């Protein structure tokens, strides 16, 4: 009867999981742990919907039912994502999902401020999950934020401290009725590691044990690399065969994983579990756990599961307990699990957790990895005690080191994970062995593949920037990696051209350029119209055409006066009568500041080679959001007026719609006169960061990453823009491809 009740309970949990796994389809980005998405966001990539209110609601509901449904997932990863969402939305004082919640709060209205709050929110999530405020701060620094400053450190630490003590206050009050006692610092507590007073030979760890810890770190790195490799193959299979199909298939996959987990747990506990005698030595951990204020000690969580009286099932004790209780069993129970049971439990848990991570339910990876690694460490301790005769070792220490080794081999974190584990154990003496184990596990795993979060980021095609480039990349220059085919605007551009540019491209910023240096000074003052700026001599046009034809072949040369003089000497040979049609075509196309493009055409298809690579004097950058805002608010002037008559918008008015700016496709074109002209000079950035074409790639990368840039113009010695560098041009794959091309041309 007990078996049937338990079986019905697990199948009912599976049904509830099927019903509530659909929350990820209301907001698909809510699936998974959320750490890869937050890592991308803090790296400078805007993932759609990653910090929406709907996301955190779906995340909370989904992780509640996925953990209650018996899946081998954790709630710590989703807590980090949830904290980041709170950090992103709270200082905005408005919500897209709840449009009635909106206050006139003019502060923190930029991407940089929002990233800082997301960093603090992610750190608060770690602090609340593990009771580790310092570890949360270091996690945000090591694994998340790309742009860090000294002033942000204490703010993030204060936020983490506040999250830890807030959770501690409410948990202690609710569980013990003692408000203000602060007895439960985090959701996951490892308890106190302490040898029994009766065992004089026992030590938490000795110098001799460091050799075993290093060996465990190597094995943990290998196991982590194997876990990541298998999960990567599963993720690729899902991308090819599951995700393209109807959404119901994802729900069925989650149900299949839940049912398989349930069957494996029951069969393994019945067939493979051993009935072991309850020994008095197992009570040595009662006092230590009572000091942590836990309502139930370690012994109360053991499961009999069809075993006779005074015995218990060791496999069922690990499988049928919550993951946190199973971790405490492995950390603090002494001599209660056989090597065979630990080996089978590790194998089954390894495979099932690898299969589970990646399905369409909110799921974390920290606790499953800790539990899997703790079983591995406890197995090592049992073997050393039974076959080598090392009676002085403390099994809980080896279980902790095994958990650190396996988790480090999976996620490849070092300093933040060390501090998190130290704060969770309240034992500073574990600092050195944990740090050594994590470093060895990371080095071993990195020899084979990347960490699990980096793997999922790369599978989604997100252009994530690493901390630095490889040394051999310095053989490349900015001119080797830049995008030379530019889409630009003029300081004074017709509405027709702006709409055409915005509707036929997806770029987020556009260079503001002029072509005629002779008229440039008067042109920038606004006293001369675009129509007057197209009066070029035939020789001038053909000179630039010949010059740019040479530039398009090398992409490294400068349009200098020497080139112009050389071209001017051959004007007669470059002006055959048949060029008259080309000249007339270019002049007619320049009647408007930008060629008229249809929605199904791109600039590269419409432009000629002469138009694509003509000399362009660089004046600044203007964002897509700024151009759309100017069009929506009707900021323009007519040809019969001066640009001084154009309405001016303040900075507050320009950023009023942040972070959801209007879309160009939602613009009502009937309200606009296509012949009107927009002066973009008051709103562009006249002094953005720029680099020379001969700048080393490492310098370009460091400037781009440390300053949090999205666009980096390449400007030559005479002030002409010759290309632009974006995040895509600095990814590892793109740089590798350009380096191979560089070697082929040598």
UniProtKB/TrEMBL annotation:
Keyword Cytoplasm: no
One Pfam family recorded for the sequence: CBS
TM spans (from-to): 117-140, 204-228, 248-272, 340-359, 396-422
Recorded GO MF terms: antiporter activity; ATP binding; voltage-gated chloride channel activity
Keyword list, A-Z: Antiport, ATP-binding, CBS domain, Chloride, Endosome, Glycoprotein, Ion transport, Membrane, Nucleotide-binding, Phosphoprotein, Repeat, Transmembrane, Transmembrane helix, Transport
Sequence ranges assigned to domain CBS in this UniProt record: 684-745
Entry GO terms, CC: late endosome membrane; lysosomal membrane
Topology versus the membrane: Multi-pass membrane protein
Keyword Iron-sulfur: no
Subcellular location: Endosome membrane; Late endosome membrane; Membrane
PANTHER family listed in its UniProt record: CHLORIDE CHANNEL PROTEIN CLC FAMILY MEMBER, H(+)_CL(-) EXCHANGE TRANSPORTER 6
Protein function: Voltage-gated channel mediating the exchange of chloride ions against protons. Functions as antiporter and contributes to the acidification of the late endosome lumen. The CLC channel family contains both chloride channels and proton-coupled anion transporters that exchange chloride or another anion for protons. The presence of conserved gating glutamate residues is typical for family members that function as antiporters.
Family to which the UniProt record says this protein belongs: Belongs to the chloride channel (TC 2.A.49) family. ClC-6/CLCN6 subfamily.
The protein's name: Chloride channel protein
Lineage of origin: Eukaryota, Metazoa, Chordata, Craniata, Vertebrata
């Amino acid at each position: 009867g007990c078996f049937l009740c338990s079986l019905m309970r697990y199948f009912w949990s599976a049904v509830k999981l099927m019903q509530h796994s659909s929350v990820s389809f209301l907001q698909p980005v809510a699936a998974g742990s959320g750490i890869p998405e937050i890592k991308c966001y803090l790296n400078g990539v805007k993932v759609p919907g990653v910090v929406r209110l709907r996301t955190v609601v779906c995340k909370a509901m989904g992780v509640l039912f996925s953990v209650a449904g018996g899946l081998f997932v954790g709630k710590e990863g989703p807590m980090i994502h949830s904290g980041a969402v709170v950090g992103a939305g709270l200082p905005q004082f408005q919500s897209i999902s709840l449009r009635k919640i909106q206050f006139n709060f003019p502060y923190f209205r930029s991407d940089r401020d929002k990233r800082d709050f997301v960093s603090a929110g992610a750190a608060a999530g770690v602090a609340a999950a593990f009771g580790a405020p310092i570890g949360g701060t270091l996690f945000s620094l090591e694994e998340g934020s790309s742009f860090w400053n000294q002033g942000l450190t204490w703010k993030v630490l204060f936020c983490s401290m506040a999250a830890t003590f807030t959770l501690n206050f409410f948990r202690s009050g609710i569980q013990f009725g003692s408000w203000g006692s602060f007895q439960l610092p985090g959701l996951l507590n490892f308890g106190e590691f302490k040898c029994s007073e009766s065992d004089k030979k026992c030590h938490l760890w000795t110098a001799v044990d460091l050799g075993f810890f290093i060996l465990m770190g190597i094995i943990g790195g290998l196991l982590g690399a194997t876990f990541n490799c298998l999960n990567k193959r599963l993720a690729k299979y899902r991308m090819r065969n599951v995700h393209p199909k109807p959404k119901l298939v994802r729900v069925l996959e989650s149900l299949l994983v839940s049912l398989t987990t349930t069957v494996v747990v029951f069969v393994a506990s019945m067939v493979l579990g051993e009935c072991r005698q309850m020994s008095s030595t197992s009570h040595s951990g009662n006092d230590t756990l009572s000091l942590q204020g836990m309502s139930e000690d370690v012994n109360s969580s053991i499961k009999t599961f069809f075993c006779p009286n005074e015995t218990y099932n060791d496999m069922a004790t690990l499988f049928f307990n919550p993951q946190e209780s199973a971790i405490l069993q492995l950390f603090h129970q002494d001599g209660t699990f056989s090597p065979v049971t630990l080996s089978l439990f590790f194998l089954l848990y390894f495979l099932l957790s690898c299969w589970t991570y990646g399905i369409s339910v909110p799921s974390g990876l920290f606790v499953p990895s800790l539990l899997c690694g703790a079983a591995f460490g406890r197995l090592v301790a049992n073997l050393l005690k039974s076959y080598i005769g090392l009676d002085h070792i403390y099994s809980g220490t080896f279980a902790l080191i095994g958990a650190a080794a396996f988790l480090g081999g999976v996620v490849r974190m070092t300093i933040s994970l060390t501090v998190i584990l130290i704060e969770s154990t309240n034992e500073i003496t574990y600092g050195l062995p944990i740090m050594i184990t994590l470093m060895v596990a990371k080095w071993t795993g990195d020899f084979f593949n990347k960490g699990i979060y980096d793997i999922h980021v790369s599978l989604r095609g997100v252009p994530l920037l690493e901390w630095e480039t490889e040394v051999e990349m310095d053989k490349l220059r900015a001119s080797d990696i830049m995008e030379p085919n530019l889409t630009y605007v003029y300081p004074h551009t017709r509405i027709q051209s702006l709409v055409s540019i915005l509707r036929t491209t997806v770029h987020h910023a556009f260079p503001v350029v002029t072509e005629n240096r002779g008229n440039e000074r008067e042109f920038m003052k606004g006293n001369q119209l675009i129509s007057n700026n197209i009066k070029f001599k035939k020789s001038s046009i053909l000179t630039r055409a010949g010059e740019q034809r040479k530039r398009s072949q090398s992409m490294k040369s400068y349009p200098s006066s020497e080139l112009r003089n050389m071209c001017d000497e051959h004007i007669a040979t470059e002006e055959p009568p048949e060029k008259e049609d080309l000249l007339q075509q270019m002049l007619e196309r320049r009647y408007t500041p930008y060629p008229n493009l249809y929605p199904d055409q791109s600039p590269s298809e419409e432009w000629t080679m002469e138009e694509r690579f003509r000399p362009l004097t660089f004046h600044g950058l203007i964002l897509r959001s700024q151009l759309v805002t100017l069009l929506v608010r009707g900021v323009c002037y007519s040809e019969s007026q001066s640009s001084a008559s154009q309405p001016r918008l303040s900075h507050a008015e320009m950023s009023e719609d942040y972070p959801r700016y209007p879309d160009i496709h939602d613009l009502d074109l009937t309200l606009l006169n296509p012949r009107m002209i927009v002066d973009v000079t008051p709103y562009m950035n006249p002094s953005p960061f720029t680099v020379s074409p001969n700048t080393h790639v490492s310098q370009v990368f460091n400037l781009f990453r440390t300053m949090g840039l999205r666009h980096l113009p390449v400007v030559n010695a005479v002030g002409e823009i010759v290309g632009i560098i974006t995040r895509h041009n600095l990814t590892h794959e793109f740089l590798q491809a350009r380096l191979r091309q560089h070697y082929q041309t040598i």
